[in-house]
Amino acid sequence: MKPVPRATSLRRAPVQRRSAERLTRILDACAELLDEVGYDDLSTRAVALRAGVPIGSVYRFFGNKRAMADALAERNLERYTERVTGRLAGAGGQGDWRSAMDAVLDEYLDMKRTAPGFSLVDFGNQIPVGSRYAEPNHRVADRLADLLSAYLGREPDEDLRRTVLIAVETADTLVHLAFRVDPEGDEKIIEETRRLLRAYLGRVLD
């Protein structure tokens, strides 16, 4: 199982600091507006107004709102990876996979509750809202397999990648269920998700 190549939705990558800051403002505005109006009513013009940039600046980076939401999903994955990496580093080197799994799930839940636009876009599975694609979860699983292999001191071989992919797909489905039942995430469903992941990963990783 080969890693999925990194996605990019940008027409043009920012080179100068000013351009990078403008891109950040555009994505921040996109995330805020997703929470306020949803994906269907999102527009590139509204994003430009919220970000305080000319509409041409938006089109310099993105051809349409779908590409903009895709880029937000890519940024979400980068930030999620950084958060999980920080949690694992704080655990002090190699450790138990159960602690790693808790970090992976807890950081996802926290972003689900607090990160602007994340509940509608997450890592790309919800673009457009209601649709599901396999590729984003493959990218998430690849990132996590690499992080966990270093943390657990084992190679990110095909078996580990398959195991992590199954865990990611399972957690994705159940966490979305938890947030459909309760906007803050139904705690009982989340706990059942945690137990299910521990049982599955324990059979494979212990």
Strands, helices and their partners?
Blueprint: H1 17-37, H2 44-51, H3 55-61, H4 65-90, H5 97-114, H6 118-121, H7 134-152, H8 158-181, H9 187-205
Helix pairs in contact: 1-2, 1-4, 2-3, 4-5, 4-7, 5-9, 7-8, 8-9
Walk me through this protein's architecture.
The protein has 206 residues and is mainly alpha-helical. Helices cover 71% and strands 0% of the residues. It has 9 helices and no strands. It has helices at 17-37, 44-51, 55-61, 65-90, 97-114, 118-121, 134-152, 158-181, 187-205. Helix 1 packs across helix 2 (44-51), helix 2 (44-51) packs across helix 3 and helix 4 (65-90) packs parallel to helix 7 (134-152). The longest helix is centred in the middle third of the chain and has 26 residues, at 65-90. The radius of gyration is 18 Å and the shape is globular. Residues 2-7 have low confidence and may be disordered.
What's the rounded overall pLDDT mean? 88
Order of helices and strands: HHHHHHHHH
User: What Rg, in angstroms, do the CA atoms define?
Assistant: 18 Å
Q: What does the overall shape look like?
A: globular
What structural category arises from helix and sheet content?
A: mainly alpha
Give the termini separation: 22 Å
- Strand tally: 0
Strand fraction equals under 5%
Unreliable segments of 5+ consecutive residues:
2-7
Helix content: over 70%
Main sheet makeup: none
The DSSP helix count reads: 9
